[in-house]
Structures are given as C-alpha cells and as structure tokens.
C-alpha cells in the first residue's frame, strides 16, 4: 500500500513539465477569427459560471456550518419569500441575456458566407473526401483525399507495425486540400452515400455532410500551416479512415499549386491511348491498390469476412468472361464499394484490374490496357443490369411460389 502511494506521489509531483504542456483540457484558440471569437466567448462563459459556482457553494457551505444543529440553530418556519424569489429570478435572467446576445451575434456571423473569394464543395463518401473548387482562383479543380499509404500499411491486420511509432497515424492523407491564407473561403458540405461530418477543430466549426443536402460555412485562415481534422459522424466500418488535412499557404504558393493541378488534371483526361507493359501495369496497379483498396480488401487480397469480399480467388478476378464486369465494378462501384470512374483515369483502372487479376494466385495472365477501359465506359453498366436481373428472378420465384401455394 505504501509503495503504491509513493508511486502516485511521484507521478503527480514529478511529472515532466513538457508532458503537462501537452495536456490540453481547454478549447483550442484555432487559426481563424471565428475560432478565436468562439474561444473568447467560451472563456467569458466559463468564468461567469465559475464565479457563480464559487458564490453559490460558498453561501451553501457557510449556511451549513453556521446554522448547524450543534450550535443550537433552529430552522425558521416560513413558506416563501417574495423578495428572494424575485431576486433569484431577475439576476439569472440578466446573466442569461447578457450571454445570449453576444452568442447569438456570433452564430449569425458564423453563418454569413457572403463575399467569399473561393468556394469549395467537400463531398464525403465511404471512406474518403472529394473536393471540388467551384469558383475563384482554382475553379475547375477536383481532388480526392484518401488516407495516406503509411497509415493504411500500419492499419492492416497483423501488419506487425506499431501505430504509436507513426506520428500522424490515421491523421494524414495522400492529397491535402490547399487553401490560401487571408482569404474568405466558403466550404459546402454534402455526402454521396451516408451522413458524414466535416470537422477541422482549428477552423472553429463542424458541419454535417448529408446526402441530398448542402450545408455551408466559411473560414479565413490567418496563419500558414497544416491543420488536421476528422469525419465526426460514425459512417461505417471505415469511419476512422477519413482524416481531413488542410494545408494553408500564401496566395503566391496557392496560385502556383493551382497551375500545377490544372496541368496534371488536363493530362489525366487523355490516357486512353497509353499502352503499358505487364510490368508497368503491375507496378502502377499495386500503387493504386495500396492507395484505394488496401483498407477494405487487405494487403493479401483476402478482404474482411462479413464486410468486404476477397479478391484472391474470386470469380470476378479470375474468370475471363468477367473482364468487363471487373472493369465496370471499379468504374461504377457496387454495394459498399464506391465508384472510382470519376476519380481514376483509364490507365489507372487498367492498371488496377491487371494487378488484381495477376496477384495472390490470380495468375490469369490478363493484360488490360487503357483503350479497353475507355470502351467499357461507353457500354451499359452490367453490374446494375446484373443486379436488376437477379431482383427480377427473385421476384418471379416468389410469385411462382405463392401461385403454387394457392
């Protein structure tokens, strides 16, 4: 017992000061004027309720001590005091109103997205973010932000890697959203499949991303830097794999980034005539698999039982009759698997299909080129058609069963 108390004493009184510095219990002040105002409002409210608490408990403890039975105190016999009731109604009302007025002004200010220089739409999907730059400098740019490769590698089951040794585990992405400092940015939030939430604490607010709805807010980031956030709405098995990374840079650096993105985006549109060797397709496909598929289907292609099917040994990846179906499933998605048709170019899809058809024992020898993917995009989606046929067959069987039962 004595030893335990000594250890507790050492922990409480000799803990390193740098550890205490990281032990932040209060709100962060953030990187925007709104986040600073929210922090100031929070501190005013905190001090008000703290002073009220001290006064109330002081009066209560004094009354208990001063009017205790051992001193011969006797309880007064009265039903109520009109004066006291008026006082304890008026004073709290004044306090609440004095706090409500600045809080309401701040809420109205937070919703004022007028005069924004740049508008960006953030679309959540299972499990990544898509950003469309809708107007201002950068209009026309679209980026997809996925969990970074290192986090995916560490998160794989039985990877043997320690997450505690990776500084930004599950908090980094392959493609951060880039924004200029000192500029009013309007950020729209919506979702493709289920409810998500876009939340970067340093910006001072959080917005739900709901399918079929558009929510909006704004931010003016004052200091260059990297600001991290997360999806703050439980959205499925991959909820923890949807980090948000905002990279704030000067307007000059932002303009240079926009120019680079425009060139790269234009180049990615014309890949259908590219022809790669088997080795080149496998190398490129492996890289894309790690970036897009690893979390769900695992590094060995075995998937996760009950959630995500295995690719290794699956009929869609080894049967020659399923080449088009395989391509269409990546283009259009199926079930929990999102559609990658907009995100990946023809050569990207050709690479990933070639890789999955020739890995983990799926030694088909098939080589898919970008031209085949380009032609597949023009054909009707056989994934949807197949599902509809299954539904029709199931319905027909049910009808036949009911007819026979009668």
Which tags fit this structure?
5-stranded mixed beta sheet; elongated; alpha+beta; Immunoglobulin-like; 10 strands; 406 residues; Cytochrome Bc1 Complex, Chain D, domain 2; 3 domains; disordered C terminus
CATH topology (level 3) name of the largest domain:
Immunoglobulin-like
Give a short account of the largest sheet. Answer: 5 strands, mixed
Distance between the termini: 78 Å
- Strand neighbour order, sheet with most strands: 3-2-1-5-8
- Proportion of residues in β-strands: 15-25%
CATH class of the largest domain reads Mainly Beta
Average of per-residue pLDDT values: 83
* Number of DSSP-assigned strands: 10
What form results from the Cα inertia axes? elongated
Helix content: 40-55%
CATH architecture tag of the largest domain: Sandwich
Low-confidence stretches: 8-12, 388-406
* N-to-C order of helices and strands: HHHHEEEHEEEEEEEHHHHHHHH
Number of helices: 13
How many domains make up the coordinates?
3
Any idea what the radius of gyration is? 30 Å
CATH superfamily of the largest domain: Cupredoxins -  blue copper proteins
